[in-house]
Amino acid sequence: MVLQPWLRTHLYKVLVVLVVVLLLLQYAFNSIFEARQLEPLFAINSSSSAGHRPIRSRERGLLFSAANGSISPSDVFRNATDMSDDTTTTVTGVGGSTSASSTAGQMTNNTTPLCPPIPPKLVGAIRVLKDAPPLAELEKKFPALEPGGHYHPQDCRARHKVAIIVPYRDRESHLAILLLNLHPLLQRQQLDYQIFIVEQAGNGPFNRAMLMNVGFAEAIKLYDFECFIFHDVDLLPEDDRNLYTCPEQPRHMSVAIDVFKYKLPYADIFGGVSAMTRAQFEKVNGFSNMFWGWGGEDDDMSNRIKFHGFHISRYPANIARYKMLTHRKQKANPKRYEFLNTGRKRFKSDGINSLRYERKDLKLFHTYTLLLVELAVPS
Ligand code: BGC
Is 4 part of a structural domain of the chain? Predict the structure, then answer.
């Protein structure tokens, strides 16, 4: 090809102009495309298992930094559905012993702006407090709470409606310490949350998994929670960038615990603190009800998660850190391996669809909702 003498002299300049024009065009297209993506990226429909649609690449790339560095967790930030109604629930305790009334929900409407995707008041690493005042005094520290330990931000609409489910028996001092540490963190994270303490009545073997199933079943009767954080009473978060939000994939949150030298004991562990959306939990049929005594129930959940095509997600270990309070070691369940090995056969029939219990009491304390339950041994 013979180029005109003029073009030959100015070829370099023509190419530069072409490249600049192409770059400008690409920039213009990107701006239009991104403006569209500002609409809700992720919707969780808590009343059905329609669940979620995948997070888009722009969301994945979101970085945020706080005092101690920065992270970019892929499943952290998303928009949730608008739930602006004020739900009023009246609950009467079994036997007429308790009558509690809860005004749960965000007193917001569509004109209230959505909370920012990156909670602005996070501080990063936090000092864990191990000296809590008695529960009655603790209440005064959290004036913004509604009955039952329910909170929602005042000046913006929370992006996540989260039930914190704590299986419990006979650990009052641990409970006060957990509440002292958890409430400020969750409030800085601008969540619409409620803390449920699910207490097992009697003194038979403890069934952590079944209590978590009960927490789930009772919480959804009270409010349209979108996700659930299953939380041991003795674990205290050390960093408020460990977001207690709805996960894209089931999230194991207690990645690094001091007593395990801040190392993950094994890859599939799902115990301690973990988060699931309502849709995920329903899909796997909740936890098994068969694990009486210590151990195995979280491993069975881990198997359920994988079996149903999910995977366990985690935040980085320098953020998902916890301190464990000391306590007497519980008696391990000698049958746990047997139930684990045969678990798959029961995923469909053993779980929230076969859960049997009696709710003996429900009390809305200022800093938490107490559910006292008697568990029925599954047949
Ligand atoms: C048990 C789990 C427990 C883990 C860490 C495993 O052997 O089966 O239930 O979470 O150890 O303590």
Answer: no
CATH code: domain of residue 357: 3.90.550.10
CA of 230 to the centre of ligand 1 (A): 15
Give which of 125, 180, 121 is closest to 156, Cα–Cα: 121
- Residue 96 contacts by C-beta under 8 Å, 6 or more apart in sequence? none
Structure tokens at 187: 């409030």
Residue 136 domain boundaries? 43-375
User: How far are the Cα atoms of 84, 246, 282 from residue 46, in angstroms, in the given order?
Assistant: 14, 11, 10
Question: Pairing relation of β-strands 192-200 and 369-375?
Answer: parallel
Residues in the chain: 379
Number of structural domains, the chain?
1
Q: Is there a domain that residue 102 lies in? A: yes
- How does DSSP classify residue 139? G
Please tell me the pTM assigned to this model: 0.76
Q: How far is the CA of 263 from the centre of ligand 1 (A)?
A: 14
Q: What is the pLDDT of residue 87?
A: 30
* Residue 14 within any structural domain of the chain: no
Residue 151 falls inside a structural domain: yes
Which amino acid residue places its CA nearest to atom 3 of ligand 1? 295
Out of 294, 298, 304, 312, mutate this one to test ligand 1's pocket (max ligand atoms within 8 Å of CB): namely 298
Q: Is beta strand 227-231 parallel, antiparallel or unpaired with respect to 69-71? A: unpaired
Residues at CB less than 6 angstroms from ligand 1: 265, 269, 271, 295-296, 298-299, 336
Joined together, the tokens standing for residue 133 give 């005042």
CA–CA dist 47, 368 (Å, integer): 24
Distance of alpha carbon 325 from alpha carbon 267, whole angstroms: 23
Return averaged pLDDT per consecutive 10 residues of the chain, 379 residues in all.
Answer: 67 80 67 33 29 29 31 32 28 30 57 95 97 92 97 97 98 96 98 98 96 98 98 98 98 98 97 98 98 97 98 98 91 94 97 98 98 92
Block residue for tokens 């990226």? 41
Tokens at residue 198, please?
């699910």
